[in-house]
Specification:
Layout lengths: L1 E10 L2 E6 L12 E2 L1 E4 L6 H13 L2 E15 L2 E15 L9 E6 H4 L6 H11 L5 E8 L2 E7 L2 E5 L1 H5 L1
Parallel strand pairs: 1-6, 5-8
Antiparallel strand pairs: 1-2, 1-4, 2-3, 2-7, 5-6, 8-9, 9-10
């Protein structure tokens, strides 16, 4: 399993999103996601968050909060433990990102953008200011087949696939 961070930087009712269109063989290709990435050797979640924010956006985060841990499992790649953050304090200027196009998007419009289906589950939790949570998202390729929130199954499509 890989350890990674995923962060949604907010500015009023807007969220900084990364449209993944630049990397080859990218499991996130054409999807809109938050910013973040894999831990480097010896990094803590917050150290990874700050480094990835600086590398991908040019912004220095000044206020952030860890909101939960998402276990991302997919039949097409190695699993990830994603430490999920929100940030509403930052300084600096946005730079060009080599992984995709950065864009400020209103929360309302965000719901219409192509993203992983399970992302909507944790985005709703973030916007509702839910307490810290554990979420497991199990995919078969692009298809979400199971979601478990704090030990409770909230989606199970595995039996549908067998029918």
């Amino acid at each position: 399993m890989i350890d990674s961070t995923l962060c949604y930087i907010t500015r009023g009712d807007e969220v900084l999103m990364l449209h993944r269109v630049k990397k080859k063989n990218d499991i996130n290709k054409d999807k809109w996601i938050g910013i973040g990435g894999k831990f480097e050797e010896g990094e803590s979640p917050d150290e990874c968050l700050l480094r990835e924010a600086r590398e991908e956006t040019g912004l220095e985060l000044t206020a952030w909060r860890c909101r939960g841990v998402v276990t991302f499992l997919n039949t097409q790649c190695e699993g990830e433990y994603m430490y999920l953050f929100t940030a509403d304090g930052f300084r600096g200027e946005l730079k060009v990102c080599d992984e995709g196009d950065l864009q400020w998007v209103s929360r309302e419009f965000l719901d219409q953008l192509p993203k992983w289906e399970g992302d909507q589950i944790f985005l709703d939790l973030l916007w509702q200011d839910a307490p810290f949570f554990l979420l497991t998202l199990r995919y078969d390729g692009d298809r979400l087949v199971e979601a478990v929130l704090d030990g409770r199954k909230i989606l199970d499509r595995r039996t549908e696939a067998m029918a």
